[in-house]
Amino acid sequence: MSDLLSLPDIKTIEPPQENETDMMFKVEAVGPPERCPECGFDKLYKYSSRNQLIMDLPIRLKRVGLQLNRRRYKCRECGSTFWERLISVDEKRSMTKRLLKSIQEQSMSKTFVEVAESVGVDEKTIRNVFKDYVALKEREYQFETPKWLGIDEIHIIRRPRLVLTNIERRTIYDIKPNRNKETVIQRLSEISDRTYIEYVTMDMWKPYKDAVNTILPHAKVVVDKFHVVRMAN
Ligand SMILES: [Zn+2]
């Protein structure tokens, strides 16, 4: 019989209990760990166990809980003890990694309450998963410091806003509410790996020049011809 859960390292040990809205599976690891994580020795024995509730993706719109009998092992060689590791489980959130991924996606478009109700996790956990996810995305985003930075402005609601761009990738790096010298200096100094920026393209506006000379003295300034022409006009 194929396992309804289809998880690589967890198996169902008896038929699930269910009602109108929820399903509960009794589960355990598919196999024991092969080696001691401390010394690599392969003679281990069961030391203790505990029950742990792990939430998983809903099945036919029913919330799914896994009652996991988690075992602890002891090494015959070095004597260290350890809980079995499961690659499908996110330990921090006590849920399967596939449920975590689904919550990250859903929380972008639904309310935290809606997501919480549909998967059977409290709202606070949903909010924390979302916060972690956004922070991770921001770190990835920050990582893309352009080698060739563009400093420009766009007019939004009749005011010029600072726009930093990645010239090579033709992407926007950041937008700030104004283009004052302090704002430009502040934003440029927040780029921790700014020595990576080799070229800067910008117009002749003095605050930009001052900011770049102060914060990015190593970068070569490539004056934007379009802006020069516009200024001459
Ligand atoms: Zn060992």
From TrEMBL:
Span of domain Transposase IS204/IS1001/IS1096/IS1165 helix-turn-helix: 89-134
Transposase IS204/IS1001/IS1096/IS1165 zinc-finger domain ranges (all copies): 33-78
InterPro entries with a match to the protein in the record: Transpos_ISL3, Transposase_DDE, Transposase_HTH, Transposase_Znf
Domain Transposase IS204/IS1001/IS1096/IS1165 DDE: residue ranges: 149-233
Protein name: Transposase
Lineage: Bacteria, Bacillati, Bacillota, Negativicutes, Veillonellales
